[in-house]
Specification:
64% helix
Amino acid sequence: MLDRAEGPDVIIGPARGEVAVLETVQHRLGTPPVVGAARALSFFGEHAAGWIALGALGAALDAPRRRQWGTAVVGVVAAHGASIAVKRVVRRRRPHDPRLAVHVGTPSRLSFPSSHASSTTAAALLYAGLVGGGGAGAAALVVPGMALSRLVLGVHYPTDVLAGSVLGAVCAAGARRAVRRGSVGRWRTA
């Protein structure tokens, strides 16, 4: 759909030891309940749709900060879009080792960086500052949870999810900079 990652145009493979890490994660955590939860997270994060919907809900319910919610959603969309752009340049193929199980379908064969990790990290950082209270605690759980789910499902290497989270954090920082400039209001930092 997004790519054709077969053949000589795939330029970056997994780092040494990444297949072993995936195999260990799947062996230790790949129980039916964990795989089911990972699939649910995958569905929620596909194309950042769940995070976009959550941000839209925040904007609908929090009229005084609607513009901040809108900026946060734009940050999530930017993180997702940036990850797709990087995937198309890097062209790393998803894990395809016979020792690994793939538990979910994907819209592309490209893996670096993880778009799920990018959009989840951006959403967690941006939305936590808007919900206050337990938002930072929830963000501290959801980002590693989504990242780990991508390994459990066998669709990303560890460096894919790490790079995706870094990219999401950069996009979130850009959205926060727009807020600090005063163009869309202010929120607490998470």
